[in-house]
Amino acid sequence: MPDAARGARGWGGIGPQLAARLAKLDIRGPLDLLLHLPLRYEDETRLTPVAQTHDGESTQCELTVRSSEIVARPRRQLVARAADDSGELVLRFLNFYPQLQKQLLPGTRVRVFGEPRRGFFGTEMVHPRLRVVSADEPLPQALTPVYPTTAGLAQSALRKLVDAELRRRPLQDPLPAQLRQRLGLMDLAEAIDILHHPPPGVAPESLEARDHPAWRRVKFDELLAQQVSLRRAYAARRSRRSHRLEPDASLTDRLLGVLGFSLTGAQRRAWREIADDMAGAHPMQRLLQGDVGSGKTVVAALAMLQAAEAGFQSALMAPTEILAEQHHRKIAQWLAALGLEVVWLSGGQKKRQRTQMLARLAAGEASFAVGTHALIEEMVAFPRLGLAVVDEQHRFGVRQRLSLREKGEAGTSPHMLMMSATPIPRTLAMSFYADLDVSVLDELPPGRTPVVTKLVADTRRNEVVGRVRDACLQGRQAYWVCPLIEESEALELQTAVDTHQHLCEALPELSVGLLHGRMRGDEKAETMTAFACGEIDLLVATTVIEVGVDVANASLMVIEHAERFGLAQLHQLRGRVGRGSDDSVCILMYARPLSANGRARLKVIFENRDGFAIAREDLRLRGPGEFVGARQSGLPLLRFADLERDVELIELARDEARRLIADSPAAADALLATWFSGREGLLGA
Ligand code: ADP
Ligand code: MG
After folding, report:
1. Quick check: is 171 in a domain?
2. 378 vs 297, higher pLDDT
3. In whole angstroms, what is the distance from residue 350 CA to residue 464 CA?
4. Mutate to test the pocket of ligand 1, among 550, 553, 572 (most ligand atoms within 8 A of CB)
5. Which of 441, 463, 494 is the last residue of a domain?
6. Span 240-295, pLDDT tens digits
7. 267 C-alpha vs ligand 1 centroid, how far in Å?
8. Does residue 231 form part of some domain?
9. Among 342, 346, 339, residue whose Cα is nearest residue 304
10. Is the CB of residue 442 below 6 angstroms from any atom belonging to ligand 1?
């Protein structure tokens, strides 16, 4: 693991072995140690008489040992009896060092911290934390911090390390005094001190809820650091040159003429924003986002045509073969009506065809390319690449996007349009995507009939099969999505094959197709084409159809073991139906018993149609990790700020970041050094 290796060098008097353990906690230097803040606290500032303790509540008691013995049943354990004036407490240790028994001699005074329980043998604590004390030993003045830790690193050791660092030297506040005053922010060193060792009088609830001024300061700085680094990355990319791709409408007008529909207001707005960016002398860095079915593809096609109007090439890259293939099918069909050709590039294609395509791109004969990662491979030359469109941008790593950028003419960068199939909640867009301009398609094309969602227990599978038969015999088409089996791709494949087999037998009057991730690219494409033109009635598929598949006549979808899927996935899948004007139905089959989480997810999908609302719930249930994906590799996710609760701080940080960069660049540097310790290298991509 490179991270551990980096830590293993040791720092500030910490040896390589300890450094490696600390690195697992993302602690790689003294500042990280200071910012390793407690998960919670234990109150050892008070003593509670045994008689006044409550079951299950963490409590500290001071007791005198009466007896201790090792008993063999039901298993070997050390049982001590100890008491204060109010009553007796049984202390039970299942694992213990011989040393412990020696300590617990009758008459010894001990402080124990644990959760008492009243039981058959009286009140007892299992595995309390225990310390021998003298009669007048003072109580600690502050709450005791409990830190997130890792195997091989004891809580007490971590406490010592943090305390040593807290004592070592005062932390320089990175923010100018004037800024702190204006925003009423606590001094950083003081905030950090309070959070490690809350003095008496600090309300525990305000620490718990993280709304104490000390938390506010730390969260603000964290968000500000994120904003500053993203804005700087934005500015750095923005400072490059691009070719101005001025529109002349000669091609885009023709596309609008052959589409057979008119753009929604949201599409027109987004297109205008993109067109303006592309006409500029600096690279566009824009995120186009919108719900499933909001019509992002046509906006991308318009942008590609604008590039061509200015005499430049454009490329659209998608993370999977099937998604790229869908884009190609759609865009090629639109552009064919204009007499234009779209080159297809993928890893799965035949060598000869590929070589031919590459030659045409390199010679500048072809203007449009759609494909997978194959597009960014070394040999692919785009001498006049003016626009790069990246779909499902979060699935690509920073390096991949970087290398796409390098494709254009030396000294210039292509304009970049990122697309996201999954709506991104506003707070997330404001924080993690602060380095992009954002266009939102917040309107669905007219004439869509909302998809009716049904929850059905899988004991009613036969009924569901009957329903599929009826729908298909009426000329509709259906998807049957096989269960997701995260642990084993082989098992998932086998299940898909079995399901296909079973449905073929159960529905002999239908033509049933199968689509899964292990099929060759051309096989997948063939199957999709057969489904798209109605030769296949029912398509049994694994989640390869999750993104982008667009067959308007398909109006029924069955998802098996829906409880295993994530929210975004279910929403994406459901978005595959309801694309035509037929009434559409999505049947979510689930197996009992449902876990609390599985139930919560199904409820969200059942109750919500709006992708943004679902995304907000998803963010709440799972945190930002899944959304952000490969995007932030090299940069930690937010540790303290919460995208839901800290909206106000996010907005504040966004506004202040601009000011700080402009007015106090040195303070901005100091802030980044505090938070990232030089680890933000990949952000600039
Ligand atoms: P997504 O945003 O999910 O990628 P698509 O681009 O696949 O959505 O569009 C979904 C479907 O809606 C496609 O069949 C597309 O041709 C169609 N479509 C797009 N824009 C409009 C519009 N303004 N009016 C009618 N249909 C549209
Ligand atoms: Mg799409």
Report:
1. yes
2. 297
3. 40
4. 550
5. 441
6. 899 999 999 999 999 999 999 999 999 999 999 999 999 999 999 999 999 888 99
7. 10
8. no
9. 342
10. no
